[in-house]
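User: Here's a chain of 100 residues. Predict its fold as tokens.
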Amino acid sequence: VRAAAFGRGVIIMDEPTAALGVKESGQVIDLIRSIKDRGIPVILISHDMPHVFEIADRIHVHRLGQRAGVVDPKQRSMSEVVALMTGAERPTDDERAGRV
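Assistant: Prediction complete.
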């Protein structure tokens, strides 16, 4: 959060809502949205797809430790992203190359 105060850098959050209740998770999501609104890049590592879709501009999908693709959450559904994560669906050539 200190980086947000100075207005520079990148914020990296690894599963920031994993051990939180609904109210606290909402507060964290509001904080992330506030940081994004200030133009500060946020990298969110999460398995919580509703939260990811709520705040992400793009989603880097990984499967078995490898990048499965980069998707635009406005172009793909939550179930499609989960299918990419599990290998049930293949990314497009652009998603595989990270061009979204």
